[in-house]
Specification:
Helices cover about 75% and strands about 0% of the residues. The chain is built from 19 helices and no strands.
Length: about 450
């Protein structure tokens, strides 16, 4: 799941908070034992996830510091060679997400430890690269190992978060704070988002460490970061939180209680996501057949708008539960369809790499906004939060419609030859690098 999708689904949970709170709580679970369980394991996953994400980020961005330290010169690279290597990395990074998470369901959190050791070993091997081909090979394997790490962490956190779902609803926390209190959430999000870039920047200080014979300059960065990452990955085999049925954090009694809580609380979330999966499949096929992105995108955002209108205007529990289906259906399609639409219309390769990263990066801002959109004082209906999101998705729908008309207008001008003047005085190399500005390029609608 992309960052944009994550932020959409996080804010969507708030619209049905009032509905869930009205579900009877007489399920035979001892509230005292439940409170003790929550207290015992509240903070366990946080440090593991923050550090894993930190090592993931550091190893992924180490190539930037290596470039400054002479990587390109030593490997005989020229022009856009580094850009191509980064593009290869992100292709495999994206492709690894879903298969890795599907495997995670069967293997458990041990897979995260395996992935961390894996990208640590790749970083270690990068210290011994002698050619551009070697760089490409390491980027492929780094993408495979790192691609499943972040999505896997999110999945594991959601599984552990389920242990606290009922208690958080009783205390009327915001939907994003089902796992942590608001004051705790701010700290953890700050650490999660702040430590990784800081570690990456600090890694340039490794250049000041003395050489190890052949291991000098940029090679030191990969070697030291690789050793540290592998060591941490080995530790993760013992400390990474797992599924409640096998988690080492719980004793037998706590495990039974945790499973009872999940069984009592999870079924209500299944139908909306099943509807979302069906809507995604339908729209993906429809978009492929008509060779258009705007219609599935606009229609899906419009469905989200309808869902939030219902959430804002009624307190009927059944209507709000139906609204949840609409929000998740549209949200599941909107994120990936927007990414596809953006990359379809980006050229050349360097621009495509920038655009795909920019969409995900800007979309990630939604996660920060979601933290403060739904606050405890607005519960249980969260009318203010839902109204804010309604305004945001309405604007998104209007922007998408506006972009559609602009693209049709721009393509028509190119059909009439009104952009042909851009070709004047250009060399063959310059023509090849024009990308989306070339008069023969047609935007995907």
């Amino acid at each position: 799941m992309s960052d944009k999708q994550s932020s959409v689904l996080e804010v969507e949970k708030g619209s049905v908070e009032g509905t869930i709170e009205k579900v009877p709580e007489d399920d035979g679970i001892d509230p005292v034992a439940e409170k003790k369980l929550v207290k015992n394991i509240l903070g366990c996953p946080a440090a593991d996830i923050i550090l894993t994400d930190g090592f993931n980020y550091v190893d992924r961005t180490a190539i930037g510091n290596a470039r400054v330290a002479g990587l390109e010169k030593d490997l005989g690279m020229h022009g856009t060679d580094l850009n191509k290597a980064l593009t290869v990395f992100y292709i495999f990074y994206i492709l690894a997400d879903i298969p890795s998470n599907l495997l995670l369901k069967h293997v458990g959190s041990t897979l995260i430890a395996i992935l961390v050791v894996g990208f640590g070993l790749v970083s270690l091997a990068s210290a011994f690269m002698t050619s551009y081909a070697g760089l490409i090979a390491t980027r492929v394997f780094l993408g495979i190992f790192e691609g499943g790490t972040l999505s896997g962490l999110i999945y594991i956190l959601s599984r552990v978060r389920d242990l606290f779902c009922r208690a958080s609803l009783r205390r009327k926390y915001s939907p994003f704070a089902q796992y942590y209190r608001r004051k705790e959430l701010v700290l953890r999000i700050g650490l999660f988002n702040g430590i990784a870039p800081a570690l990456s920047g600090a890694s340039s200080g490794l250049l000041r460490i003395g050489d190890f014979g052949y291991i000098a300059r940029w090679r030191k960065i990969f070697l030291i970061e690789g050793v540290l990452t592998v060591a941490f990955g080995i530790v993760l085999f013992w400390i990474m939180p797992n599924d409640p049925t096998v988690s080492k954090m719980l004793n037998d009694e706590e495990r039974k209680l945790a499973i009872a809580r999940i069984d009592a609380d999870q079924l209500r979330t299944v139908p909306p996501f099943l509807a979302g999966a069906g809507w995604v499949a339908l729209n993906s096929y429809f978009s492929y057949k008509i060779r258009m992105r705007c219609i599935p995108l606009v229609s899906s955002i419009a469905i989200v708008v309808v869902g939030y209108i219902i959430a804002v205007t009624t307190r009927d529990t059944q209507a709000r539960y139906a609204a949840c289906h609409l929000m998740i259906m549209g949200g599941c399609v909107g994120g990936p369809m927007l990414i596809v639409w953006g990359t379809d219309n980006a050229a050349p390769d360097t621009m495509r790499a920038v655009v795909s990263a920019a969409i995900c990066g800007i979309g990630a801002l939604g996660s920060i906004i979601a933290v403060w959109t739904y606050i405890p004082s607005d519960g249980p209906d969260y009318k203010t939060g839902n109204s804010i999101v309604l305004a945001a998705v309405t604007c998104s729908c209007l922007v998408a419609i506006g972009l559609t008309f602009y693209i049709k207008w721009e393509n028509a001008k190119r059909d009439r030859g009104e952009r042909d003047h851009r070709l004047e005085g250009k060399t063959q190399e310059e023509l090849e690098q024009m990308g989306y500005r070339h008069p023969q390029f047609r935007y995907q609608i």
